[in-house]
Amino acid sequence: MPVYVVGHKSPDTDSVCAAIALADLKSKLGLETVPGVQGELSPESKFVLDKFGVDAPEAVADATDKQVFLVDHSDLSQSLDNLDKGELLGIVDHHKIGDVTTPNPVEVWTWPVGCTCTVLKAMYDFYGVEIPKNIAGIMTCAILSDTVIFKSATCTDADKQAAEALAKVAGLGDLTELGMEMFKVKSAIEGTPVRELVKRDYKNFDMNGNKVGIGQLEVVDLSLLDSVKGDLAKDIQALKDEDSNHSVFLLLTDIMKEGSEMLIVSDDASVVEKAFGVKPVDGKAWLDGVMSRKKQVVPNFEKAFAS
Amino acid sequence: MPVYVVGHKSPDTDSVCAAIALADLKSKLGLETVPGVQGELSPESKFVLDKFGVDAPEAVADATDKQVFLVDHSDLSQSLDNLDKGELLGIVDHHKIGDVTTPNPVEVWTWPVGCTCTVLKAMYDFYGVEIPKNIAGIMTCAILSDTVIFKSATCTDADKQAAEALAKVAGLGDLTELGMEMFKVKSAIEGTPVRELVKRDYKNFDMNGNKVGIGQLEVVDLSLLDSVKGDLAKDIQALKDEDSNHSVFLLLTDIMKEGSEMLIVSDDASVVEKAFGVKPVDGKAWLDGVMSRKKQVVPNFEKAFAS
Q1: Which residue, among B225, B304, B227, has the nearest Cα to B266 in the 3D structure?
Q2: CB contact under 8 A, A294 and B105
Q3: CATH tag, B3-184
Q4: Which of B88, B126, B294 sits opposite A105 (nearest CB)?
Q5: pLDDT above 90: residue B189
Q6: In A, which residues are within 8 Å of B302 by CB distance?
Q7: CATH of B194-306, one of 3.40.190.10, 3.10.310.20, 3.30.70.100, 3.30.450.40
Q8: Contact across the interface for A108 and B99, Cβ inside 8 Å
């Protein structure tokens, strides 16, 4: 049985591309490894894989009796079911240290950078393994996606350098143009069911004992969402009820204006004011300059819930 | 205020030398960083620092308002007090993934190798920073100590290669001879209070909700401990009572015979038979081939306590 590499639930482009890259690297280092994905590919991820002719990873949901590497997360709530019934071999990530633990020593590469594929570029270099042209292409796209074309607060010099080096391997031209092309795909909402939009990039967190869900939709212009905003607000209320959550927050991020409108349903909406100093009106708040769930939204909520 | 690097409680030579090495590396990368140590240096660590003329790290016990890197552990029970009241910047380790979590992304380098200093050698190389001769010397000793002169089940090819490369930088000769010299210092017990022997390399674990302490004494010949074995057994009983532990185990490891005698006090000594298939007699059990707490003892107990 091969070893699986999987990213988080509600997979984004980094989770998909990092799984493909780590499976390639590990296989070349002698461990038969295949990429997996938890759930449906987003339109953006499909576009990226199509563009570079890379196969979609196999769907995986349960870790029972499997050996697995995790990429792009280390939180149990975002990981495979029954992770404790499989064997975790390692983690490559760029998020906070989550609650995954292991009985044995394993390999962990986690760096405070904007994208898992930036860490993977360094791992390829470290092991002296050449990156295939098409994998370098999808890794470049993952970095453009996760760093919002280098604009996100999470973006570091290491991300820019990795993206430039990978683009060279892949023979790519203007990265801003490529990024905008991807974000137009990501912004497309016509004909997409509302729940799919809410869950497109959605993560569950345990904050001081409270179940909190935070989704994010990134668009090139917030007005693109005007026609569905009412339905999105209704749907996160329904999702909160179904999951018995304390809160569900949905970030509608305008990557050109560089800020997010947050849609809020919560048992105690005062956490939003505690976290961001902004009082919600009608279940909404504009958060100027807030583009990163990981670096700006989650840490502020963690503190607000703990206080 | 400088940033601190600290290893685990009851510091062994790897915890001390890894803290010194990471502080050197981070400082050279531009972040003012100083090594710290939780508790007294062991005779072995003192011998190693003296041999290479390296200053002992500053004593640190509490993380409140401090920025810290952790080396050689990622378990809260082995870490600084009030870790949640300081800021964790990163972890370099070679143990299982523990229960330390962070609100923000940080740097983690954890590899399944025999010694933290093996990971640090790779980090120096990765960042292109030259290792000072005296620090290469203490890092070599840390690897010899943690891998029991390359004999431990935890020892990997990466450890051997790192030790050889470091020994070259430090201008060292025969590593087996250096290792034996260190283990003779470590084996010395004359005039040492019993509690100090028990705590010389002692760690606390939470195993399925049970408080478990596991100590280890490595000697070149088990008969060296004959005169104190009775007192050791009495003292771990006293320690168990003081700490309200479920169990305290003390491994007396014979590095030449390559096995350990385990002294046992436990609310349920059947965990020993569950873990190792050996029935204790008079609170003792000989575990043939068992030399590594981390790779052989802790995982087996974790399983036994969980079953």
Answers
A1: B304
A2: yes
A3: 3.90.1640.10
A4: B294
A5: no
A6: 103
A7: 3.10.310.20
A8: no
Read off the pLDDT of residues A88-135 as tens digits, 9 standing for 90 and up.
Answer: 999 999 999 999 999 889 999 999 999 999 999 999 999 999 999 999
Pick among B108, B125, B301 to test the A interface (most A CBs inside 10 A): B108
The predicted-structure confidence for B152-179, as pLDDT tens digits, reads as follows 888 999 999 999 999 999 999 999 999 9
CB contact under 8 A, B104 and A303: no
Q: What average pLDDT is seen over chain A?
A: 95
* Terminal CA-CA length for chain B: 47
**Given a cut of 90, is residue B187 above it in pLDDT?**
no
Contact B95 A103 (CB under 8 A): no
Checking if the pLDDT of B256 tops 90, the result is: no
Instruction: Considering only the beta carbons, identify the residue of B103, B107, B302 that sits closest to A302.
Output: B103
Q: Is there a contact between B96 and A110 if contact means CB atoms under 8 Å apart?
A: no
Residue A303, C-beta contacts closer than 8 angstroms, at least 6 positions apart: A274, A275, B103
Residue B75, Cβ density class (10 Å: 0-12 exposed, 13-18 middle, ≥19 buried): buried
Q: Is the ipTM of this complex over 0.85?
A: no
> What would the two tokens of residue A111 be?
């760096």
CATH 3.10.310.20 residue window(s) in chain A: 194-306
Residues in chain A within 8 Å Cβ distance of B112: 104-107
pLDDT in tens, B105-122: 999 999 999 999 999 999
Euclidean distance between CA atoms B302 and B293, whole angstroms: 12
| pLDDT for res B25 | 98
Q: How far is B89 from chain A (nearest CA, A)?
A: 9
Which residue, A18, A260, A21, A255, is CA-closest to A132?
A21
Query: CB-CB: which of B105, B298, B303 is closest to A96?
Result: B105
